[in-house]
Inverse folding.
């Protein structure tokens, strides 16, 4: 399983704001943000996936879940992670990377990421702030009611 690591600088204030929220709320903020940020990549990947493999297109999604095999191989990097790609499909990686001269690569995930990576990072930065503000307001309202 190939992974892409992204390092973004200048988000210390965002991290500090997240740490002020209860842990469960902070995780929910990040899940909502990452789900939204991943959608443009998933949408483009669906459009780039080979048309004759409709099941491959339909299986591309943004999710916190991996297949049991993928989960065994995955080393968790963060308390909240979101994955973009096809549901477990033995043909997906063969389409993305090819098998050699007999079957050339037909990439759909990497071009989708390359096309949207800057947008994804912008959504993560901006949307996370909005979600933190909404969550903080909701928590303050709840506290004011005495709950």
């Amino acid at each position: 399983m190939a992974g892409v690591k992204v390092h973004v600088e200048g988000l210390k204030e965002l991290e500090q704001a997240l740490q002020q929220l209860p842990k469960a709320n902070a995780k929910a903020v990040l899940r909502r943000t990452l789900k939204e940020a991943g959608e443009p990549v998933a949408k483009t990947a669906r459009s780039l996936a080979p048309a004759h493999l409709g099941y491959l297109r339909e299986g591309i999604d943004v999710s916190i879940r991996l297949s049991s095999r993928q989960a065994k191989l995955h080393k968790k990097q963060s308390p909240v992670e979101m994955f973009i790609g096809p549901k477990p499909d033995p043909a997906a990686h063969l389409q993305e990377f090819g098998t050699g001269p007999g079957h050339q690569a037909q990439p759909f995930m990497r071009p989708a990421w390359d096309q949207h990576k800057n947008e994804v990072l912008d959504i993560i930065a901006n949307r996370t702030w909005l979600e933190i503000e909404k969550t903080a307001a909701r928590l303050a309202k709840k506290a004011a009611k005495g709950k």
Notes: Residues 13 and 136 are 15 Å apart (CA to CA). Residues 12-144 form one domain.
